[in-house]
Amino acid sequence: MGIGLAREPDRAPPAPAPAGTTGAIRAGRMLVLLAVLLPLAVLVLAALENRRDVLREAGERVERTVRVLHEHANKVFETQRLILDRVAGRLRTVDLRDPRTKADFETFLASLPNDYDQVAAIAVTDADGRMAAGSHPPRDGSAVSFADRDWFRVLSASGRRGTYVSRAYVGRQTGQTVFTLARRLDGPDGGFAGAVALSVDRSYFERFYREIDPDIAHAVVLIRADGEILVREPGAENTRLPAVAPMLRAIASGDARPYTARSSVDGIDRIFAFRKVDPYPVYIGFGLSESGVLAAWRRNLAGYCAVAALAALALLAASLFAQRQSRQERLATARWRQAADALEAEAAERRRAEAQLRQAQKMEVVGHLTGGVAHDFNNLLTVVMGNLEMAQRHAGEAGGRAMRGIENAMEGARRAAILTQRLLAFSRQSPLAPERVDLNRLVAGMSDLFRRTLGERIAVETVLAGGLWGTLADVNQVENAILNLAVNARDAMPEGGRLTIETGNVHLDDAYASARHEVAPGAYVLVAVSDTGSGMPADLLPRVFEPFFTTKASGKGSGLGLAQVYGFLRQSGGHAAIYSEPGEGTVVKLYFPRHVPMAEEGGSGARAAMETPTLIPGALERAPRAGLTVLVVEDDAMVRAFSVAALEEAGYGVIQAAEGPAALDLLDAHPELDLLFTDVVLAGPLDGREVADEAARRRPGLKVLYTTGYTRNAVIHHGRLDDGVHLIVKPFTAASLGRKVRAVVAGA
Q: Which of 347, 351, 642, 686 has the fewest CB atoms within 10 Å distance of its CB?
């Protein structure tokens, strides 16, 4: 019996490519190409546009600066003209042949350099160029001749009237580098009788020009129309511009617009502009180094490149993912077309179920990720803010620069904390850190910030009172309050206007206080912020300090700015008032209680006190009870270390644990424990709430204080804290932790 060969089952032929596959592949490749080319094109366009903006802004900056320099030069030259008028007027009544009269006149001349910083020396010559009188006459009585000076030769030979501006040279009377403004003196017959020469100290201009724009390398030049350099900062060996110099060509053409050219003095490319100092043949010019200007553009370009690279990577990843998805969909479609109608329905149902599952998983992951990131970030912020605060308290011997660095780091940490709170839609009220504040210095320090942030269309003016009293307030909150008001004023002046910030000492009397029950009569330090904006009608003024009330369009404001200012002033023992009229503008007045240090209390030895009876919260906090011991349970080592250090510095005994079981063992071993301070989210088998519940079972009456950086946890439900639960939200500082612990122990 023969054995037959087993026959393999027939294999299905490969499914034909669906219609449109070639077009889809081509479109996918095009998409990948666009993912690279599109960010590159946007990068190039953005870089070119930003370069134009930077150069245009530099040109505007040069024009603004040259206007300032021109105004300064006009005033200086006008002052020199007036001095020459004074000297010429005195000469009409002075007989220089009389020794006594000459001595009085030279005393007058010697006083002028003392009265005017720009004046180096003054001399009066006879018709032969010899000095007849001067502010610096030779002590040995030797003759001084100016006959070789260009100003004397021009005035004596030409019969020229008016003021002549000389070239720069080293003065014979003072040894300083000067240039001279000289005027002809006529005799009774109208002939040349001498000259009055005023030497201008070139270093006076150099000092001013050196500080005019310290941010970018710049050059300032004061020249005569013939190219003779009177003053240049920075200095140069050249004393005269060549005839082909770009500035002289621009002067000859009469075109005073900014231009870019290479300097004929030092070979640096600059964006330059000039103005004539009428009526003299003198020009003032100012230029910014083009490479210095473009340095900012290059920094921007680096950022653009980073953004473009990230965008290209994101688009490329999305394109590849789309291609993969498209390929999978095409294969699935090919298989689905070969399947029966029943299988098609089953596949559709399966896709819907998978989509729902992916959405549910995605939302679950996002929720866990958001909470985890917030929790970990708040742990880090607790360490950063807490240690910065402790550094501030222990940095009394540090210099002002170190303290400013600590304060800047603390401000960045606070802003990060606010972002985290917004991420979780959770807010809280920050504790105040009052200190003695010089409001004049604070307002003056913020002036440049206002001018930069409010825009050029809003003129900012500060009027600071002399002898301003001190006050006790939280500096950051004061700055936030003033900045809030400045931003509100800007929004009320969309077409531009004027913002004025004034300070002053005021007394609020009984009549004023009786009309406002929350105000105590007494001495206050006033900060008034006024604008020329649209104003508000009288019927809205009683509501402006209410939370969530705003006159801005929907989406333009939260309505919390003025409410926060009002609450801060009330918490500081002060008062806020507003005055406004439609079309006339608004004035908001902030009244801070005057703070009198011990040295100013008449030698009574009393402690510093407010002049109003309102006390700042926390000013009378009691010290911790001796022997009080706290158990700190925190799984983050850095947060735990900071919490232990803060509590020990506050005077408490501290025992620490990294997880729940260890904390319960310590609780049994230490009956002296008074307070359990635990994080809600703990690594290990027990979370903070379970540790606290077990601790309460073992030690009834034990005080418990929770902390967390994530609101959706075991002690907060439906946005509210559970009854009887004490909580301090991360990030916290050592001071806020100490206050909270004292409150919990005291049963507050």
A: 351
